[in-house]
Amino acid sequence: MIEVSEIRKTFGSVKAVDGINFHVKKGEIYGLLGPNGAGKTTTISMISGLLKPDSGSITVAGIDIGGKSGQIRKRLGVIPQEIALYDELSGRENLHFWGSLYGLSGKKLREAADRMLELVNLTERANDNVRDYSGGMKRRVNLCAGLIHDPDLILLDEPTLGIDPQARASILKIIRDEATSGKTVIYTTHYLEEAENLCDRIAIIDRGTIHAEGTLRELTELAGEEDVVTLTGNFKSGVTKEILSGLRIDHLEDGMVRFYVSERETIGMVLNKFFNSGVSIENVSIKEPSLESVFLRITGYELRD
Amino acid sequence: MKNPIAIFLMMLVPLIMTLLVGLVFGGQSEQKLPVIKVLFVDNDGGIISGFLKNGMQQDTLAKMIDLKIVDADAGKKLMEDGKASALIEIPENFSRDFFDRKPVEIRLVKNPSETFLPVIVEEMVKTMVVLLDRAAFVFAGPLDMARVLFDSGRWPTGDEIKKILEDSKNGITLAGGYFSGSLITFKTETVSDPTDGKRDVEFNIFAFVIPGSMIFGLLFISEITLRDLVRERGAGTLQRILVAPLRGVHVVTGKVMVTFCITAVTCIIILVISAIGFGVNIGRPLPLIVHFIGVILMCTGLMSFFYGFINSERTADAVMSVVIIIMALFGGSLIPFEQLNDTLQAIGRFSPVYWAGDGFKQIFLMNAGLADIAMHLVIVYSIAVATLLPGGILLEKKLGRGD
Ligand SMILES: Nc1ncnc2c1ncn2[C@@H]1O[C@H](COP(=O)(O)OP(=O)(O)O)[C@@H](O)[C@H]1O
Ligand SMILES: [Mg+2]
Predict the structure, then answer these.
(1) For A284-292, what is the mean pLDDT?
(2) What number is the average pLDDT over the span B182-207?
């Protein structure tokens, strides 16, 4: 359905997107997981045609979006990261306006808007100005505005940013349902759980490139069988290095160390060694292979909300 | 549009501004009017020419008129150099002929490069001529007395004046029915521009003030309407519009067209109010419409062009008002152009506002035809074309679209 190859975009000296490749099949939810500044929005903007890639190509349903993009735009639903609605209009008026841009009109438009409002439980507040909505309500209308014309390909850029768990669950369910009914979805997020729970395939994106890609299982297998252990205490890095010799250390500083173990017994041994050298350990955390540990291994840091 | 009330209020702003400026200038304070440079050639040197001369230097008029007494040659030279708005020439033996009730003629020479100031002088001299003329009948008896005094070459004594005044009471009754027929004729000409003398439009202070402030207002209206583009860009709604199946060109043309329409409607409202509310003669329809369209295109074009360089509402706030105010200041919107000094006027001729405003003034005050404002039209339409096209292209580029 969508084929992205070697796209690049530079802003001044910032390589926002530095050679990204992926493809998404029909009915699939493809996740772009990465921290702020990774290049997710830039990638989405290039697919939606808002930005022109410096190089590389993007095709949707076999049609290059660089050329005649009119017929593709009709089939495209874009939900921007920033809420893009008219504050001074009501939720319903907003949907009418955005729907009309896609050629909907009359009864068809009104029905589509009502259906969307029903879907996100906003029928009762539909005639209030968006200005008076809560963050979660605005997010829901923002979503509806991108879906009202029933697009085949849905681009969502962090659609759940900063909202309460209920509204988030409702949005995720809608996206799930869209995919089930055959829509193709590209979903960017910096929330690990969202990527884990929602996406069929996940790409880990950082500093403008995709570092790993696959289903949740494939990715966790990448992390191998190793657990990630993080210790904090009153130890010095020199001592620690000795104690941990032979183990793969991911991060080391005075008072904090993170390393990989393939067997649980190793952890006990390590703690014993620390104990014997008079070090007190304050905290031990063990992470089983998960998307989080994959992310950690690939990017070298933890992804926090 | 999204918010009709806001747009309506926006359109009221220049209107109110126009009215305020009009009231300030048109109210009691004549001293706000430009000072008019008038040359006075007195070939007569008699009582009547003295009366005219003094009349024009008396209190209220003195504030408006900078009267310079010159001889005929100097006057001619100054007029040809365009150093004054008008020249009044009193013929030889004017006073004597007047007392003899022979037909006399006052010559008024107008400066063709100026439009209204000479008209003001013309109106004034006309009024004085009418007064004199009537006086010639009313004071028929006493005038004879005055002539005696005049011939004797001395100023009248108190008693003689008293006598004249007493006689004049009879004179008024006597001359009651004589108000028609004129002894003093009045001849207007224009320096080296014979086509200009025939126009005869009543001078209206609003017609003088409204064009400048109207252009000022129209520029602001265009600016505010186009500002939506950067505002929507900041709000993200523009990007959302751009991912819809519309071409960037359509978005830009749409916005520019809306700007054109709103500016045009504002202009029409101002024109209607000027005509109905302030009795401004809005001139002949053809030149008015042609100039009107040019001016609206120009305002829309200028603002589109400027917005082609502006990325955020912040920049717009900082830059646009300043740009508009400078153009308006030199173009004569804030201070009547005629009142600017030579240097400022020279600069002002580079301001689009001057050509737009002055075009309307010519139409309102001089009943100008297309040919009379040909220069204005060429400039206004040239600016419109030169800014609309690049402005549109810049705006479209700015939308950051690849196609
Ligand atoms: N219009 C722009 N001008 C300059 N730099 C930009 C622009 N858009 C994005 N960037 C930079 O490109 C990088 C990627 O940004 P973005 O795609 O928004 O990341 P994400 O959406 O993953 O947070 C960041 O370093 C950001 O500062
Ligand atoms: Mg982003």
Answers:
(1) 81
(2) 57
CATH code for the domain in which residue A251 is found = 3.30.70.260
pLDDT tier, B173 (very low <50, low <70, confident <90, very high otherwise):
very low
The helix-helix angle for B158-174 and B117-138 (nearest 10°) equals: 90
Angstrom distance (rounded) from CA B217 to CA B18:
8
Q: Is A162 on the interface with B (CB under 8 A)?
A: no
For residues A271 and A247, membership in a common domain is answered with: yes
DSSP 8-state code for residue B81: T
Interface test with A, best of B243, B246, B399 (most A CBs within 10 A): B243
Angle at alpha carbon of residue B391, lines to B386 and B396, rounded to 5°: 145
The answer to whether residue A101 neighbours chain B at the CB level (below 8 Å) is yes
Ligand 1, closest atom to CA A158? 21
Q: Which of A179, A203, A221 is the last residue of a domain?
A: A221
**Cα–Cα distance for residue pair B324/B334, rounded to 1 Å:** 11
- Which residues fall within 8 angstroms of residue B35, CB to CB, at 6 or more apart? B63, B64, B65, B66, B339
| Pocket residue to mutate for ligand 1, from A7, A14, A18, most atoms within 8 A of Cβ | A14
Give Cα separations from B285 to B136, B198, B363, B368 (angstroms): 42, 19, 9, 10
Report the distance separating Cα B282 and Cα B248, nearest Å.
39
Question: What's the predicted TM-score (pTM) here?
Answer: 0.66
A76 contacts in B (CB within 8 Å)?
243
Element (H, E) at B259: helix B248-278
Phi, psi of A156 (to 5 degrees): -115, 125
Three-class SS state of A39: coil
Is B4 an 8 Å CB contact of chain A?
A: no
| Same domain (yes/no): A92, A238 | no
Residue A58 covered by a domain: yes
What is the domain count for chain A? Answer: 2
Q: CB of B33 within 8 A of CB of B25? A: yes
Nearest alpha carbon to residue B89 among B134, B22, B44: B44
The 10s digit of each residue's pLDDT in A173-219 is 999 999 999 999 999 999 988 998 999 999 999 999 999 999 988 88
Tokens read off for A153: 């390909």
d(CA A135, CA B180): 83
Q: Whose CA is nearest to atom 1 of ligand 1?
A: A11
- φ/ψ of A270, rounded to 5, equals -60, -45
Q: Are residues A37 and A151 in the same domain?
A: yes
Q: Could you tell me the CA-to-CA distances from B401 to A37, B349, B387 in Å, in that order?
A: 22, 38, 21
The full set of domains in chain B, from first to last, is 4-26+203-401 (no CATH), 36-180 (3.40.1710)
Average pLDDT for residues A94-113, to the nearest whole number? 94
- Which residues make Cβ contacts (< 8 Å) with residue B62, sequence separation at least 6? B56
Instruction: Report the C-alpha gap between A6 and A288 in whole angstroms.
Output: 34
Domain that holds residue A270: 225-288
Whether the predicted pLDDT of A54 surpasses 80:
yes
Comparing alpha-carbon positions, the chain B residue that sits nearest to A83 is B236
Least reliable range by pLDDT among A292-296, B26-30, B304-308: B26-30
Dmax of chain B from CA atoms? 96
Is the pLDDT at B309 greater than 70? The verdict is: yes
Are A146 and A100 part of one and the same domain?
yes
Task: Taking the CA atoms of A87, A88, A91 and A96 in sequence, report the sign of the dihedral they define.
Answer: negative
